[in-house]
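Hi team,

Below is the intake form for HCP-like protein from Entomortierella chlamydospora. Please confirm the fields before the structure is written into the shared record.

FORM ID: S-0412
PROTEIN: HCP-like protein
ORGANISM: Entomortierella chlamydospora
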Amino acid sequence: MKTPTRMPRDLKRRRSKDANNENNIDSVAAGMLAYIQSHVSSNNTGLKRIQSSIHSDDDSTPYSSLDDMDLRINAANKGNPIEQCALGDIYQHSKGGVSRDHFEAAKWYLRAANQGLAVAQCQLGSTYYDGKGISQSYQRSLEWYLKAADQGNVDAQDKLGEMYRKGKGVAQDYHKAIEWYLKAANQGSTTAQNTIGSLYGYGHGIPQDYGKAME
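The structure came back. Fields below:
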């Protein structure tokens, strides 16, 4: 009777290692797909939740692990706009032990913004507005805020109201300021609501109305 041929131990170990690697890759891919499906929406609410954790003082965020950063950078380099914008926030706010780097932040915001991500477009608009990591430009800021605001981004609508109210990069125009503030206010922006109240109180761009100012 013929004795069965045994598989060499090193080949067994190699097959086991390959299987583990495949399982790890599948787990990462499945996790990333679930992440995108659960976090991405037309109004970018998922990314807003990410940013709220980045902007907080709590350092126990998903970005504190070097392994997580490696995965995030890898995904961003492959074109994932959510991860690109998240990296922009990480470098902008120096989270998870990452050194603050405004230039690097602007680079990642731009890559995500060019893919149409409204939150990234708004962040890039703010980067140009403040001149962090790139040359200050109200004109470029306005362009990116408009792209984000047209997609319904409330922060961009707020900023456009501010730019027209203050005449930053545009001719001062209270009527246009009110238009953008109203859009933001209708989405629940308390900043826009308070500013509209003030404009009604002073009669800037709209007839003076103390009753509406107090609403």
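SUMMARY LINE: The longest helix spans residues 9-39.

Thanks, M.
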